[in-house]
Amino acid sequence: MDYHPVPTVKNASPFDASQDAQVLRAAMKGFGTDEQEIIEILAGRSNQQRQAIRGIYDAEFERDLVDDLKDELGGKFEDVIVGLMLPPVEYLCKQLHAAMAGMGTEEATLVEILCTKSNEEMAEIVATYEERYQRPLAEQMCSETSGFFRRLLTLIVTGVRDGLRTPVNADEAKEQAAQLYSAGEAKLGTDEEVFNRIMSHASFPQLRLVFEEYKELSGQTIEQAIKHEMSDELHEAMMAIVECVQSPAAFFANRLYKAMNGAGTDDATLIRIIISRSEIDLETIKQEFERIYNRTLHSAVEAETSGDYKRALTALLGTV
């Protein structure tokens, strides 16, 4: 299955960074703030365009746009708008850092960000993280995780996965499927090292072939095998890889549903996915969400949020 990612946020055309900077300054000057103007401009421009606006704003008014936004806005609305102002890779690095800061670790955030990336994307995150926090991502992650879960994430972060240009190999896929079967269902207990090695080394297109071969060989899906053989964080990480190999949009649609289902809302996850996928495949995620849950993502977000926070998120979701 070929994946066709469709974004909700694209370059605005026509685009005038100087004009946008002027409007933003006027929206924050004097008493009160025109939140709607801020939403319309920043949610309606690509990240590249936002960086251009920030550069002109800083030069023209000798003020930092992000600092001004932080001063004028608050709460979850501020989290969305300030998040939009960070370059995408920096934004993900900030999210990773926050997931490992203080007491406890948000393993689900690590899984969502790290297990869904190609080797090329991972290399960018690793380089940016070290530059920003003066500490290697792998080192910090090792101090925050343990066991086979730590081993899997370390393999992913250190960039062992084959690149997207590596051709898929049908014979190797058969062999890898056989190794997974021997390491799990065919024996008492589980050899997690074998699962870790294959799931972290093979490219996503290669894994797609491996999973097909696995079903052919064992009569079970790889998801069924993982469910039987693994638990806790390692199970979550393996399932994230499997879901992203099969359909990234379904993976993120399910994450969004869980963030909004039940009592309370996991706003951090809701904001992170909508921002980080808006220029990649948020339109595709919307379609998948509606297909799986029989309601629009737009209506779900509207039901769970309010005020300027709601307006900012729904602006990023685009047309219903």
Features:
elongated, 320 residues, 20 helices
Task: Characterise the protein shown here.
- The chain has helices at residues 17-28, 35-42, 47-61, 65-72, 75-85, 88-100, 107-114, 119-133, 137-144, 147-157, 170-183, 192-201, 204-218, 222-229, 232-246, 248-260, 267-277, 282-293, 297-304, 307-317.
- With 320 residues, it is an all-alpha fold.
- The radius of gyration is 21 Å and the shape is elongated.
Task: Compose a concise summary of this entry.
This protein is an all-alpha fold.
The portion of residues assigned to helices is: over 70%
Could you spell the SSE succession in H and E letters? HHHHHHHHHHHHHHHHHHHH
Radius of gyration: 21 Å
Strand portion, in percent? Answer: under 5%
Intertermini distance: 26 Å
Q: Assembly state here?
A: single chain
Topology (elements, then pairings):
Elements: H1 17-28, H2 35-42, H3 47-61, H4 65-72, H5 75-85, H6 88-100, H7 107-114, H8 119-133, H9 137-144, H10 147-157, H11 170-183, H12 192-201, H13 204-218, H14 222-229, H15 232-246, H16 248-260, H17 267-277, H18 282-293, H19 297-304, H20 307-317
Helix pairs in contact: 1-2, 1-3, 2-20, 5-17, 5-20, 6-7, 6-8, 7-15, 9-10, 10-12, 11-12, 11-13, 13-15, 14-15, 15-16, 16-17, 16-18, 19-20
